[in-house]
Amino acid sequence: MKNSKFKLDKSNWASVEGWLSIVGNILLFGLKYWAGLATGSIAIIADAWHTLSDSLSSVIVIVGAKISKKPADEDHPFGHGRADLISAFIIGILLLLVAFDFIIESYHTLQSRESSEFGSIAVVVMIISVVLKELLAQFAYFGAKKTNSKVLKADAWHHRSDAISSLVILVGIFVGPYFWWVDGALGMIVALLIGHAAYEIINDSIHSLLGESPSETIIEELKLTIEEVHPHELEPHHFHLHVYGDHTELTFHIVLPEDMPLKEAHDIATILEEAILEKYAYVSTIHIEPDVD
């Protein structure tokens, strides 16, 4: 029973995934950097630094998850759950900086018409990188689905982008001898892949931090629940969800007769709040409007 709880806990998932990533990434960085120096490949060296940057993001994952687990206090009455989103945003910025640096390095490689001689060393290292990084990505994605953690999802993107970039370089190794510009071009492609992943992570984090309207599906489900609890027409509307990690606040309006006693109106709102808390784990605040018609 304790093991099951451990697997489903966001902070525990983040810690395990983070430390596995740090160890794996440092080992891969050493292998890639050595292979890059041995072959003189800017694409492999750039990919090595991308891998090392994953270790920094994994540290952010661990710290962010630990902060988000802290309970509510006087300064943060809804808890510290949004530390998860802030951590994901920071990872996205790190990825963006890495992508920009790769573009500059690749441009210089193309401008100087530098070429690289890939050998069996590069092939073996890239195959190891693709397999290991994809395994780390799958583990992080699995944890993200289990815990609904955006920072784990962001770290999974980080791993996946590294796996893809290594795969692109692996393909380029076999065509490199025929085209001098392959190494620089591959560096550009890797940079674009990383930049795209960074954009997705940053965009998703910002939307969640600023606040998003609940989906039509969630609204319809809430309306059905309200109708089941109180069959009379309450005209629920103006739904807003405020997500703070594992804690979610819901606000919405209902319409009641203007001559209804305050006690009765309060009891209806309380029954709805309890039903929504039990079914969705949302803490609700309901605004009551009078039906003047």
From TrEMBL:
GO CC, alphabetical: membrane
Occurrences of domain Cation efflux protein transmembrane (ranges): 19-210
Protein name in UniProt: Cation transporter
NCBIfam families membership: CDF
Compartments (UniProt record): Membrane
Membrane topology value: Multi-pass membrane protein
Transmembrane regions listed in the UniProt entry: 12-35, 85-104, 119-142, 163-180
Family, similarity comment: Belongs to the cation diffusion facilitator (CDF) transporter (TC 2.A.4) family.
Keywords: Membrane, Transmembrane, Transmembrane helix, Transport
Domain Cation efflux protein cytoplasmic: 214-290
Pfam families cross-referenced by the UniProt entry: Cation_efflux, ZT_dimer
PANTHER family per UniProt: MITOCHONDRIAL METAL TRANSPORTER 1-RELATED
Highest classification ranks of the organism: Bacteria, Pseudomonadati, Bacteroidota, Bacteroidia, Marinilabiliales
GO molecular function, one term: monoatomic cation transmembrane transporter activity
UniProt source species: Labilibaculum antarcticum
